Amino acid sequence: MRVVIIGAGEVGYHIAKKLSDESHDVFLIDKNIEKIRRINDNLDVQAFLGSGTSPQMLRNVGIDSAELLVAATDSDEANLIACLLAKNLNPHMLKIARVNNREYLKEEALFSSEMLGVDLLINTRSMMVDAVLKLMEVPGASEVIDFVGGQVKLISFMITEDSPLANRRLLDLRENGQNLLIGAIVRGHKILIPSGRDIIKPMDLVYFVMKKSDVENTVAQLNVQPRQIKNVIIVGAGETGASIARALDNKNLNVKIIDQNGEKCKELAALLNKVIVIKGDGTDRDLLREENAGAMDMIIAMTDDEESNVLISLLAKDLGATRTITRVSKLSYMPLVSSIGLDTVINPRMAAVRAILQYIRRGRIISVAPLREEEAEAIEAEALETSDIVNVPLSQVDFPPGVIIGAVVRGDEIIIPRGDTVILPHDRIIIFALQRVVPKLEDLLTVKMEYF
Description:
The protein is an alpha/beta fold. It folds into 4 domains: 121 residues, 3-Layer(aba) Sandwich (Rossmann fold); 80 residues, Alpha-Beta Plaits (2-Layer Sandwich), CATH 3.30.70; 121 residues, Rossmann fold (3-Layer(aba) Sandwich); 88 residues, Alpha-Beta Plaits (2-Layer Sandwich). 31% of the residues lie in helices and 26% in strands. It has a 6-stranded parallel sheet with strand order 3-2-1-4-5-6, sandwiched between helices. Helix 6 packs across helix 9. The model has no long low-confidence stretch (mean pLDDT 87).
């Protein structure tokens, strides 16, 4: 696939890396010479210094033969103009635009096929708000990802020393009747697609697949104490922090939001009904103590400065806060931040990468969720009747090493797959795969050549 990416920030860089690792032809445009140097030093892609809103530059990178355009600069206007130009230079390509301005997002007709023809809009702010709200629904979870319209959930938990799963073989769990679907294990900087012989160890981050209706029961099996969230502090009243405050404003919660900017505080205080707005420095330990941070069920650090967010969360944990959610923009920081004891790290760029991936996967892909450090993916796909995985026992399917079928969803039933399980056409399947074997997996999910 020939892909043109405009913008070499975190989103553009990591999409380019992922696609180049999978042998796609990637052409990246950015106006910043330092970002272009970073691309040239680290990635096997063709990087061009220039503007993505230049028709000539788009022609230079072969826009007329490209299959996908990803406009991911920090400027909504540049992204939209790039899509407009691409529509005229290559009407048949897919176009993805990153847009944050709420005024633009309200104008649905602007993105229609008659106007800009944008196939996918990425709004990282709304994705971040959605991620926080999902985490609040499952106390103790490190990550919550929805599949099958929210009816199936992928939820990760950190395994503690006293967890009933610690030092247990996956095969033993099944033999004891614990029907826990485990799709992936993150251990340090490595991610495992486990087999029945693998052992869960303390400090492993384990991804479980479960029905929405089974979440409470599964959490109980893990011996996670479900504490209802009532008291919340948000630090940072930027676009994302303010959006979270608005989402929580009319819920039955005690919510405070802290920011140093007096004007932001005044504006937010006029908009919110129940949330208490406080002007102050969220990295000030004394202020956090005064606002009773130690008694909070959740501290959400959402400033634009990731170092401040890490400090805020560490201070809150030290004061006794039950859980923290920490915004970190650089993907390379995520494993380090997790290792120092912070509960949940969320990244606005990862949400954007997740949304884009479903457009570049072959087969009937419904959604894709990159897991920690993007070394593996959880993929929701529809089983096509002409693919190699249907109507035969799974033991006879030639899956590449590093792939596991986590669950088969057939109507309202979630099936724990075994060797004799047969996938039927139109089943939804949840697959866990290491990134390096995704192209081979795509071959299994696509239409057989003899079908034609």
